[in-house]
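Anyone have tokens for Vesicle transport through interaction with t-SNAREs homolog 1A isoform X4? Sequence:
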Amino acid sequence: MSSDFEGYEQDFAVLTAEITGKIARVPRLPPDEKKQMVANVEKQLEEARELLEQMDLEVREIPPQSRGMYSNRMRSYKQEMGKLETDFKRSRIAYSDEVRNELLGDDGNSSENQRAHLLDNTERLERSSRRLEAGYQIAVETEQIGQEMLENLSHDREKIQRARERLRETDANLGKSSRVLTGMLRR
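Reply: yep, here.
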């Protein structure tokens, strides 16, 4: 049993050393690599928790007279695990702050620079809003002009149809007149 425990101890020591090294490297990595590193560390922390559970189960199976020494080791490992998780949380907070600052364009300058940046952005938004309003107004005017043109075209169409109708009537009347005149000339 103690050989299993010692094997778990060695695995835990190697794993915690890897995790510690990775946590220390997180702040210095480029953003894409940071994301991968954070995911990798989370996975390794889960593995370390599982190892601790296995070690705890092994300690419970050890005879009571030898259990004290292993229980002290377990307490120490659990404290180490807690410290690793705390360090990782701090590293993630620093990482998330860095991501937030990157997204917001905050490079850690004074509040005066931030204020100037916000005012500049506000001014841009106002200009964009005015352009959008002007564009909307032009669209409304264009729509009105289009409707007026459609109405004019509709009226023109009606006039053209009436003129065609008169032309047909006139043509028919001319045809009748021509027949009447031809008939008169024959007599």
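Residues 3-104 form a domain with the Methane Monooxygenase Hydroxylase; Chain G, domain 1 fold (CATH 1.20.58.400).
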